[in-house]
Amino acid sequence: MIRTARRLAAAALLFAAPAQAIDAERVARERYGNDAPWYQQRIPLFESADSRLDSVYYYRWQLYRAHQRDLGERGYISTEFLDDVPWQLEPWASLNDATGFHLGEGRWLHDRRYADDYIAHMYTGGNDRHFTDYMADAVWRRYLVDGDRAAATRHLAAMRRLYDAWDDHRDRARRLYWVEPLLDATEYTIASIDASGGTDGFRGGDAFRPSINSYMFANARALSQLYALAGDRTASADFAARAATIKALVQRDLWSPTLGHFVDRYKVSNRYVRYWAPVRGRELVGYVPWTFDLPDDSARFAAAWRHVLSPDELGGAAGPRTVEPSYAHYMRQYRYEGNAPECQWNGPSWPFQTTQLLLGMANLLDHYDQTVVTRSDYLRLLRQYAALHYQGDRLDLEEDYHPDTGRPIVGLARSHHYFHSGFVDLVLGGLVGIRAQADDTVVVNPLLPAVGDPQALAWFRAQDVPYHGHRLSVTWDVDGRHYGERGLTVELDGRRVAHRASAGRLTVAVSRAAPAPVARPIDRAVQLVRGQFPRPSASSGTAAENLHDAVDGRVWFFPELPNGWSSDGGGAQWFAVDLGRPTRLERAELAFFADGAQVAAPRSYKVQAWDGARWRDVAVRGTAPLANGITHAIWQPLTTSRVRVLFDVPAAHTMRLAEIKLF
Description:
Layout: H1 2-14, H2 24-32, H3 36-40, E1 45-48, H4 51-66, E2 68-70, E3 76-78, H5 99-106, H6 113-126, H7 135-146, H8 149-153, H9 156-165, E4 178-179, H10 190-195, E5 207-208, H11 210-230, H12 233-253, E6 255-256, E7 261-262, E8 265-266, H13 288-291, H14 299-302, H15 306-309, E9 336-337, E10 340-341, H16 351-367, H17 375-388, E11 390-391, E12 394-395, H18 424-431, E13 434-436, E14 441-444, E15 459-467, E16 470-477, E17 487-492, E18 495-500, E19 506-509, E20 535-538, H19 544-548, E21 565-566, E22 571-593, E23 604-610, E24 615-617, E25 621-622, E26 629-649, E27 656-662
Antiparallel strand pairs: 1-15, 2-3, 4-5, 5-8, 6-7, 9-10, 11-12, 13-14, 14-19, 15-16, 16-17, 17-18, 20-22, 21-27, 22-26, 22-27, 23-24, 23-26, 25-26
Helix pairs in contact: 5-7, 7-11, 9-11, 11-12, 16-17, 16-18
């Protein structure tokens, strides 16, 4: 009788009404203003008892959206810098060092085009191995979320070629990979500074590093899993063996018993350093092996995590240090652009490695048997990292920060809203605890501190998270005061499927549904190479770069870094695009920036098409000019080689056309 009552009570809990849903339209409008439509059907929602975490979560989606560059027929890529930098891969502006973060964030988006296009780009010429990366692993992790087998295995041949190309950085005797720290995206490390005798460190310092070897381990393991998906057992076994070899060698050769940490060993020999000698100090890069679950579950390795919790070692007051203060050249500034400090990794706190650290810590807390790190540590460091996104009350993530004060160090024009890290992945995969699986299940294990802990979080809800073709929602309420019920609840497509009264692990069956098809409209107005078609022109503001900025495939509305064509004044203005050949078009997207002061959206616009002899007005159905959002203009399909848009700009103002897209 008692058992029956308990079963009935459990059933009642399971089939109780879902938690109160977050209003997607309201959140999008409040967070993104006129640009809300882009986010409303694309991003999973999140709210919690920590409003700053919430704000950074939504800001990171804004950052993601701003860094989606439309390459026209080649599709979208994610950029690292909002605008061009000299070392990007032309003509696309791609860089591969942060690709793993870009895909880690993008895998949680409902619109799968962005990650899909980006992967295709990187495996068809977009990855020049300028930097180390873990792209194959990121493709596998994306598959764990969306479950799209065809998309995951589509580029296997290219993945293998790219993996094997790194043999030129593999030492045959040691069977480990080496890299110059600069090309590991981490200039001025202990290895590169000490290899120069302490005089520099931008170049040089080739070393066998925990980073590149963890990346190659993760890529080999991912290729093994992807080949298994494709039914190629031989290739799967080959890459599994490669991963096992790297794992064993990293644990044997890159672990320093003296420092209790994974460290670099020198590849280079000169009068300052010698081949195979370990570096003389601990660096944050030593935690990268846990980002990919490389280390064995042993107390010996887990003890390394004490160093990042120590304020005298890697644990900075405002962010994790990349090098410990005991290092002789800690925080010494070597490099400048003019009078402004440039990037260095000899102590500053970098969102790049902070993300890797927190991903590794989440793994440690989820499935390692250790007592060094607690869930309170994870949430404290996540909040510390979130705080770095703020400059006063304004959200603007930059390149690196002083680990004691949290103030930006580099702070160049290029540094604003920098996409060289992750955060959404840390919230959904770490704090909320959505551990994506290769089978038809999902594991939910939130990293919640104990009740009464200073870092405790009383409630949260993650809603409409894409997972295996479904919408997954996870709700936590410590005492039932916020959502009306105590405990952890999982919903699938709005239906409650699992519940427990306390924080902990839940495993839920999720039948795999076919992913939604990816729509790929092509923007015909993108000018990848300046001077080539499509060619822009305008009534004023005719400097070449000013014109190009309105057809460069980039859309953002951040005021810190202007982007787009700016007119010289108000009144009648126009902007035209010469496509270079007759092209069938049926709509346009116009992105207008406004700052609430000098720069304003036009009062009205008119679309014209060239008929071979003169401009003709186009009958448009569309929205009125919208500031800091997308204005849509639609017409009956027509064929033309040139399009012009006329604007009526308020007097005493200028306008900025952030982007014009033609479809």
